[in-house]
């Protein structure tokens, strides 16, 4: 017989009314890393909400594999749904399989070469616009690159520069406010604070902007067999092989928001951390640069047989962009020998799993040699989630990150700026705060092969946004 929920060990440090929310705001990573010492399951309170943090690797796998019992929801999932609706990453189980079937064709391997050409073009243009000796505020520059890549691969030339800037500004407001709202009781959502007003305004405007793109593209006849080579064309054309139905305009809007935020924000965070590593290790930077021409030539995701591939893998272990997310139990169940009531928030943390010393010795040390082969069950790896809800765009993201790294390191040597301190800033994603890097031009970056390929592609490319 399973033990009662009350016998699960409780995390120390809860305060009246707010529970453990203050600890998750002040030092969330340290708090999460402290929990495995208490057990494979640990109870926490977020205000009045009961929740359990899954610390055991095997139990984490159980939760991720059974998305019928452990459905999308809880404080993270519910907040994402506020602006992304029932997109692929946030929809409940009963909608997910149909959504996945409709979205899968947009990420088919046959479409990736066209997306990769856009990635190479946008990354090269951005890298070329930087100046020798310039000191970069890194994260905003990378968000600008990845957002342009995502916009161009999603809707070709549909979104103007002003429109893209507004979409990017709105997503920044939402991602900044989402973690704060996770730790705030829902009863306070309608209090007219500046943060709540900005969040609601950004939600409405972002949904309206992307919905209008869907409506105009459908009105133009795209989806009747024509193909612009972008994600939206594939989504409009997709039919569910089981029901023969297509996505509605609202569903497409949800997907565009989901993919824009995931493709721009999480890729930029990973790239920023990777550049932080390269700026502090000249030898690794030289090895990555030596591989850049090959990556820009093939435009495929770097494998574990390359320094670039291992750099990306270890970066996403050490600083997983989505460092915590939640599920909710749809029924009473058993987990780890304990009863878990229905409507319990279940917290999964890739950061926690990636920093278990029994799975990753000396977990805070950045070590490329961990990845001479692909991850195994012994080395659990969750930057893209797991189970049936694993990210559908994993190959897209890894290709994008590798191409952008190659475009930057081909042209620039990067160095840390003395006197700056880089810290992890947990919000909706795990961002590096205070990251500033100095650029020095490599002497052999005039008329690069990668630039010639981008300027004279084998196949016609979508117009720049």
Automatic annotation (TrEMBL):
GO molecular function annotations of the record: heme binding; iron ion binding; monooxygenase activity; oxidoreductase activity, acting on paired donors, with incorporation or reduction of molecular oxygen
UniProt signal peptide: none
Binding, heme: 391
Keywords assigned by UniProt, alphabetized: Heme, Iron, Metal-binding, Monooxygenase, Oxidoreductase
Pfam families, per the entry: p450
Region (Disordered): 441-465
InterPro entries noted in UniProt: Cyt_P450 (IPR001128), Cyt_P450_CS (IPR017972), Cyt_P450_E_grp-I (IPR002401), Cyt_P450_sf (IPR036396), Cytochrome_P450_Monoox (IPR050196)
Gene3D superfamilies with a match to the protein in the record: Cytochrome P450
Residue ranges with Polar residues bias: 442-456
Cofactor(s) needed by this chain: heme
PANTHER family named in the record: BIFUNCTIONAL ALBAFLAVENONE MONOOXYGENASE_TERPENE SYNTHASE (PTHR24291:SF50), CYTOCHROME P450 FAMILY 4 (PTHR24291)
Family per similarity comment: Belongs to the cytochrome P450 family.
Protein name: Pentalenene oxygenase
Organism in which the protein naturally occurs: Actinokineospora cianjurensis
